[in-house]
Amino acid sequence: MSDGAGERVAYLGLGSNVGDRWASLRGAIAALRRHGVSVDAVSSAYETEPVGEILDQPDFLNAAVRIGTDLEPEALLSICKAIEAESGRTAGPRHGPRTLDVDLLLLGDVELVTDRLRLPHPEATSRRFVLVPLLELDPGLTLPDGTRLSDELEALGDGERVERAGALE
Fold first, then answer.
1. CATH (domain of 35)
2. Is 145 a catalytic residue?
3. Segment 62-90, tens digit of pLDDT
4. Catalytic residue among 3, 26, 56, 98
5. What confidence tens digit (pLDDT) does each residue in 18-38 have?
6. Is 112 exposed, middle or buried (0-12, 13-18, 19+ CB in 10 A)?
7. Is 98 considered catalytic here?
């Protein structure tokens, strides 16, 4: 599956708030491996409150995964979307309930804007449920422009609830 770019470290965000959330997140990790993605580390799972326009929905279980990949961004995104579909996810409102979310957050030092994908993920630095598990995996993690994610988390303060729920692996 090499594209000539060499292996890069990437970070994915996982989330679920419909059905068996634990099984959905564990299933996503297994599916990544089935799709040939090298899963290097998995954060704890975190119980988080919904954010966005639809707040009347169940709490989410969120986590982050560090992977090694030589895939191009669009190919990795396609795998993420395929895993969501395999989990039974159907189209719904933005920030609405879902069986599974698999978001490509960071891919090495790639900065990219296409019709399907923006890297780094545009909402990553404004969401505690993304930053807390990412920083568990890599406390010194930075964006391609050098922005320290720990500084971004500190700037957010204590807003949305993000509570460690337990280990996924």
1. 3.30.70.560
2. no
3. 999 999 999 999 999 999 999 998 887 66
4. 98
5. 999 999 999 999 999 999 999
6. middle
7. yes
